[in-house]
Amino acid sequence: MAQIPYRANLQSMSFPLLSELSGRTIINPQADNTYARFVSADGQSPVDTGIPQIFYCHNVMPSTYGWQSVRYNLKYSPPPGQTGLDFENAYLIYAGQVIDAGGGNTILQSTGFKSYFAIAGTGPNKCFILGGAGVWDPVLGAPAIPAGCVITVATVNGVSYIYFSGIGCYIFNNNTGSLIPRTLAGLDVVNTLGIVPANGYLNAWNKTGVAWSSTVNVEDFVPSDVSGAGGGQVQEAKGEIVTAVATSLGYILFTKENAVSVIYSGNAEFPWNFKAIPASGGISSAELVSRDQAQGFQQAYTTNGMQQISHARCNTITPNITDFIAGNTFEDFDSTTNTFTSTNFDWTMRKKLAVIADRYIVISYGLSPTADMTHALVLDLAQTRMGKLKITHTSCFELRSISATTTEIPRDSIAFLQRDGTVRVVDFGLLEDSPDSVLILGKFQYVRQKMVELNQVEVECVETVDTFTAHAIPSLNGKTFGTAMPGYLLETQDNYRKYAWDGAIGVNVSWLFKGTFNINSLVGWFSLVGNP
Q1: Fewer beta carbons within 10 Å, N or C terminal of the chain?
Q2: Does position 335 have pLDDT exceeding 80, yes or no?
Q3: Domain membership of residue 512 as a residue range
Q4: What is the Cα–Cα distance from 483 to 377, expressed in whole angstroms?
Q5: Do the domain assignments include residue 282?
């Protein structure tokens, strides 16, 4: 029987988030009308074109011409000799010191030091700063952390104010390695939940209202027509205020029911204009809103689903991700047994959201609402494509250089914080093996009338020294996966491998690749072997 060659598609924008949602694709569609232009819906949801393509991956990211494996490099280590830590978030801060200005007055001055600050649970001695040796060092003078304490950081005039909800405000002095308390005059420390910088002001919020400082002294919140400090209730807020995020125009308040635009007016007497953002949903936690913008929008997972939010409007996006995160099925792939495992549940998955380098939207998630997250979907806005990472973590954040030297490393900026304080960074380089990267493409069937046998697959851009395997997964009914069959390596050259199979027969056959790769071309050779 003559062999039929076929080069696979490696440019798909997204993939099903559950393998059971991958449909019966076909190489030669004949009478199929899976996708018909001007008939099929053409919206935010991925379109099923009927073309064989990726339908599962983990620790794989889109490359310019295909798909590549990624690994994780150890960037920072846990605090030595400490156990029972509970790192949840890391915050980039800029240190400051108190300078005697004479006449009994003091001023704050930046020390030029920057690093990451974190709390690691509740109780005393739970505050840490990332030291020069690449480990977390204890911070002196830190308050005991009560349960439910929320940390917010606002950088004004080159110095970061660290606010502990219900406790008060501090700055970090790197010369002494300690937190220095700062009194924000006029604020009710017990009820104030957080702070946010905007247009030269330091702003604070509680459950129902906001306050803004004097522009002369950002630590002065005492209402005054002279200093310009003031505050009040937010009439446009439909629920309790959860968090606030700074923008170039002011800041956005996120409540449990909606989002409120707060734009700087330029009027010292009434410095802020408040307006509810139409169609915006509410949030339950500050961790569901990105600290940074991507393409001019804050990204958020709200009561309306995944949304892009600006001062003027709100766009609901990626309904496939919303439906998956809000669904009741969790799926994973065991790269040892080469099998899928699916778990049904009736609770809400844990999730967080971050924007990295104005390019990636990272949606972290985990099956248990009280345990660490295990996976992350990564939307590459530059390529308009999606990848998926599998790593246990408590948060994802943008890693920036904390040295005095600026280094342009945009591809080394996706960092994951783990429970014990370990920080690992996604490594797009292929100099070392990727121990757990999985890519599955399918379902390859030539025509509906015939079964197929996979004879060979040619893989390009896999080095001869890379750890890499290829398997065939036949399906006798077109839906249920059979046992993965390892391929026999026929040939290996620089950036080229050829694998062969004997007996990989089914209504369709999928391809499973594991290891280190930067695949930009896949050519399969099939034979037609009989009727289904």
Answers
A1: N
A2: yes
A3: 4-57+66-70+436-530
A4: 27
A5: no
State the burial class of residue 243 (Cβ atoms within 10 Å of its Cβ: 0-12, 13-18, 19+). Answer: buried
Helix H or strand E segment including 116: strand 105-119
Question: Read out DSSP for 327-352?
Answer: SSEEEEEETTTTEEEEEE-SSPPEEE
- Residue 389 and residue 370 in contact, taking contact as beta carbons nearer than 8 Å: no
- Helix/strand/coil (H, E, C) string of 390-420? EEEECEEEECCCCCCCCCCCHHHCEEEECCC
Rounded CA-CA distance 49/53 in Å is 10
Q: How many domains does the chain have?
A: 1
- Quick check: is 490 in a domain? yes
Distances (CA, A) of 488 to 292, 467, 519: 48, 14, 18
Please enumerate in sequence order all residues whose Cβ is within 8 A of that of 103, keeping only pairs 6 or more positions apart, or say none.
none
60 bridge partner residues:
69, 388
The average confidence (pLDDT) of the chain is 93
| Cα separation, 152 vs 289, whole angstroms | 13
Rounded mean pLDDT of 394-407? 84
Residues 6+ apart with CB under 8 A from 21: none
Bridge partners (DSSP) of residue 427 are 71
Lookup: tokens for 49: 């074109």
119 inside domain: no
- Our CA dihedral for 356, 362, 366, 369, rounded to 10 degrees, sits at 70
What Cα–Cα distance (Å) separates residue 119 from each residue in 75, 320, 418, 485? 18, 34, 13, 48
- Is the model more confident about 26 or about 480? 480
* pTM, two decimal places: 0.94
Whether 411 is covered by a domain: the verdict is no
Tally: H helices and E strands in the chain: 1, 43
Q: Strand, helix or coil at 261? A: strand
Residue 82 has what pLDDT?
87
